[in-house]
Design a protein that fits this description.
Low-confidence stretches: 1-11, 256-260, 263-273, 320-332, 398-450, 618-622, 770-823
Protein name: Cilia and flagella associated protein 70
Shape: flat
Keywords: Repeat, TPR repeat
Number of helices: 40
Distance between the termini: 105 Å
Structural class: alpha+beta
Pfam family, one: TPR_8
Length: about 1050
Amino acid sequence: MSLCSGLSESASLKMIPVIINVIRGINLHGSKGDVMTSFLRVEHGSFRLGESPYCEDAHCSLVEYNFTCKLECCPDDVISLDNLVHNPLLLSIFEVLPKEKKQKERSIVLIGQLTVDLLPLVQGETCIKSISIIHPTPGSPIILLPEDSQNASLELLVTTPEPLLSQECIEDSNLLRVTVEAAFSVPDSYTSASPQYIYVITLPMPVSSEKEIPLIMANGVPQPFAECKASPRPKCWPLRNIHAAGASHIQGTLNEYTSHGHSQEFRELPMKPEMESNCISWYTERRCYLNNGAAASLQKSIAESRLWPVEIFRTTVPGTGKGSKGKVEKTEEGLPISFHGVAFVDMAPLLYPGVQLVHGAYPVTSYSDTALFEKTKRSCGVARDALQTEGEIMCLSVLSTLTSRLPRQATSRISRDEKTPREATSKMTVLKQMSELEFDGRESVSCLKADTQQFSEAGTYIVLEFFVDKPFIHKRSTEELTMKVSELIPPRSALPKKIFGAQEAVQSFHAQIHRIADMLIAKYRDMLKEDADELPNDYKSQEARKSKLFYELNSSGAYYAFKEQLKHSITDIVREKYLKRTTFKDELELHVFLNELYVFLMDETHIVLHKIMSTDEISSTPIQQTTSTQLRHFAKDAEILGHNQLAIKYLQEVILQDKRDPERWIDYGMFCLRTEDATRAEECFREAIAVDQNNVRGLILCGVMCVIDERYEEAEILLEKVTSKDPRSMLAWIILGLVYTGQQNKILAQMAFSEAQKSNLAAAAECSSQPMVDPAVKSCDNEQYEGGSTEVDVNTQGQNHPPQEGITQDESKRECLGTLPRTLNSLLQASNFLVEAHVPQVAERALSCAVLDLLDSERSEYHLILAKLHMLRGNFVQAELDLKTASQYDHKNPDTWAFMGHLYYKMGRPSEAQDCYERTCDFVEETPEIRTVCLQLASIYLRDGQYKKAKQMYLLACKSYPSQFSCLGAGIACYRLGQLEEAEDALSEANFLDNSNAVVWGYLSLVCLKAGRRMEAEQSYKYAVKLHLQDDGLLAEIAQAQLDAGFGDPSY
């Protein structure tokens, strides 16, 4: 049988002893001078492991106990391992006082306690060696030690002969830490009764794939609000008979939750101020060992019901009867339960990738089997079972809390006798003294009105924390995601291509010639620098100077040095360019080759010398080049006016200017999406990622393409890469949520949508510089979950958030996020982006999630986006109905009227489109569609002969940025108005922006014909014909103007 397999038959279980060796006590102090007689007791849970013999020490500095006991542990038994992780070793030190007069037995006083955590043994260690501080009990002589002296401590060693668990089992197991902090705003009657009451928290927890046990924390104590809210505060061990307050604290734990998870907060205020409210404090941590089966069972339960019940109730400590003989009295039904409430904790965040913590405040409601079944699919709670199975142990374990209210004489005298009846008699004595306090238990129970509805009326809530040492769902690291993205889309090399072969050899020869030429010129100047001004410039004198230079070169050895410098580069040319690496067959072949080589070398030498000696001045006239921004504007206008081929031409020119700019590929891919060329669009997005593996827009859009084809695994990798790089990318979270929705994973889908909503709120708050109120987080399904609104705090590599992708000044990012700045619904923003990107399949999924819980203020935007979706699919009738509905919700939204104008324009109803466009232009708030509105409204005016209005609209379009289309329209309107000079200026500007537009040349020819400029008219007409002018009406108008003017067509 393998380890971690769950519960097994006791006969086949392997037992490993845990050996506890208490070596010595250090700096102990007795109450009767320097001489002290003491012994110690070792306990684990409810079991006493042993007591040491009496040890006397005259100086109290070192007490050699050398006491050894052992604890049997079964690594095959999950219950045994669970007891080991949540129960520490409790070591109690007792002082044995001398016998006084008339005393039958020596008095024994508990002077200190300490606890030892055994968790390292379950984590693979075999030895725990420590010197632990002894925590004094109230009135202990240890308290009287001087402040500058060493603390009283105990040296001990805990060992096992072999590791309890194998490394494989340790890796497969997990540890869940359940922390109950405090309950706030509890009803007055809940805490106003006798101190005999025990305040209990219990919840179910799986210990194997088939079995659950109740977790009980019964050490709740009524406290003032200020003490309950004190932070930081150490956590305590659960259900321990610990008299020393410091010994109950778990070392290294504070109630400060980390950022490795989600925090959930209940935001409703109680009925009265919290400072005046009653509180019950626990601050107790209960550890749960989870093997592979238990962890799988817990995850399955969370996935099925999400909500985990945590029950809270009050019970009484049973008293003693006359014939009880020291035994605890219990009724047949067990201990009574009153004020039974339940809090439902949404544990779904533990199934989010990388999340380890759920921490929050949860409302307490009255317990009901019906409500429990509806929310958790459990038929009954665990409170009654917990009391029936562990009630007696629970009562004994809370004695430390209750006896802390009694005088020291009642708590410090403890019998050494190991027999159970005597110990029970001592405990019953404590209970008897408690019954004589101010309140009587039976009377208080009868007087209290156990109305569980008081929890809701008082607004009671409880603060809980669930932490797992290892996240249930592994979160892929940034490095892992980068590697997977590189496998899907290999990156392009960013290094420039190195020149090899013949070209490198020729360039090396050029460099050597340039260097030698520089040295020759310097040599010649040095030789003639003395009498250079007096030398004659005739032919004989030049030849004489040349002969002198050759003599100097030969005599000084410079000529030979120059030849040696050229040898290496010439050899490379022979090998790389002429591919000659072997000997020649005969002299003729060698002679032919040398002639060919000489001609080539002379030609290359002359090229270098001409560059050196050239005196031509470089032209200062700059070459006109259209920028990428202008080309993008031209492409946008061409797309608006339906000239898609022209738009493709402009976008390809943008890419050719810089192929390593990923944004240029993305712009082209977005255009291909809008023209329903999905294959080419995905190629462009992949090329953008290949150029830049961290490009957010490219990764998101490539993920969208994968969602369209239902390649969810590939989409998940790409989008996780975005959220890893930029955890505040709202669009990436939304599309990732749609991926999880397609995979039927509702928990991760809600996580993604919640992250998107938080990112959206943060972006809006930064944009407005004002704090935003977090509305209820919308889910992708209709189920509403209690437990407070979710506020996500996800750890992202140290919480260093990269710059967010949100509302920004950058135009490309604004395009990526859509054009809905007024709404806070992230799903609507994503839907709008997907519709504008012409991805109706994915946009419809996002809208179906957004429609489930729309606010009234968002219905106008929803119907507007729905109308765009219908327009994409050609359903103009339904689109018109949605636009009218949107205008009824918000008639002041200019976007609604702009798209209504677009709809009528597509439907061939120009008069109605004109009315909508004019209304859009009248709004003070400018729509993002204003460019399209201006161009299409101007074209309607131009078509209807309203040239003055058309001129105004084209000039308004030119005001934002001029393009050849807006300038051409302005020129046409001016020409029709007879304003030839203004028409020529506008047409010349259009021609300057793009000289390949045949229509511009055609209208320039008309203007020149009207102005009587023959040569310019003929030249313009020639270019219009050369560029294949296709407008028959314009061609006919030009022909008539040429007939009227008598010139203009050079073909006659």
